[in-house]
Design brief:
single chain, about 230 residues, mainly alpha, Rossmann fold, elongated, Glyco_hydro_3_C_sf, glycosidase, xylan 1,4-beta-xylosidase activity, XYL2 arabinofuranosidase
Length: about 230
């Protein structure tokens, strides 16, 4: 808010936020954040005690519904330990979520789905900077992943009964250095080509926007070469 010159101080920002109905701050720290100025705003009469109670009520109502104030014996989550992390149940749920989140934009001549039984003895090429680079597959709000649980497109496709070849074309999403020969060599000898393109956090994240939606670097050229 200060950066957009809507307010001049944290105190003004706290008052404006409270008046707008905001009751939760994603702060930079406990010692110097916007809502630490609420007591001063209350003392100066910029906000009322009733307004403060109205803003706080839904927060504590939610915390009560989540069981934060219940005795530990009443909260089933209090008995959880690290054994649940990456448990088979959770990994299966993650797999289900991944499968259900795919979006099919176009399916020319019914190419998809590919069936494993139809890929026996087939040559499958997986190409692109996202084909086998675990680091670029996660967003900037993701936890630190464990490499042994990461299935890149290449690793996943290699579980199929097919002869899988791989060519990155360019090693990073920026794709400034592109090897056309590498991609053409893999794609030209394949019956099926899977092209893995995108942006990733190297190209765009929160507070690092782009001016257009085009593929970065030589990625479009890579796609055109694979199609041709």
């Amino acid at each position: 808010v200060l950066g957009h010159h809507y307010t001049r101080t944290f105190l003004e920002t706290a008052v404006a936020s409270m008046n707008a109905g905001c009751n939760l701050e994603l702060s930079y720290g406990m010692r110097n954040n916007v809502f630490m100025h609420i007591p001063q705003a209350l003392a100066m009469g910029n906000i009322t005690l009733q307004m403060l109670r109205d803003r706080v009520r839904p927060l504590f109502y939610t915390r009560m519904r989540l069981g934060e104030f219940d005795p530990p014996a009443m909260n089933p989550y209090s008995t959880l330990d690290l054994s649940v992390v990456q448990s088979p149940e959770h990994r299966n749920l993650s797999l289900e979520a991944a499968v259900k989140s795919f979006v099919l934009l176009k399916n020319v001549r019914g190419t998809l789905p590919l069936h494993a039984r139809d890929l026996r003895s087939k040559r499958l090429a997986v190409v692109g900077p996202f084909a086998d680079n675990p680091r670029v597959l996660f967003g900037d709000y993701a936890p630190v992943p464990e490499p042994r649980y990461i299935y890149t497109p290449r690793r996943g496709l290699e579980t199929l009964p097919a002869n899988v070849s791989f060519a990155a074309g360019c090693r990073e999403p920026q794709c400034q250095q592109y090897s056309r020969e590498e991609v053409v060599g893999a794609a030209g000898a394949a019956d099926v080509v899977v092209v893995c393109l995108g942006t990733g956090t190297d190209v765009e994240t929160e507070a690092k926007d782009r001016s257009d939606l085009s593929l970065p670097g030589h990625q479009l050229e890579l796609l055109q070469d694979a199609v041709q």
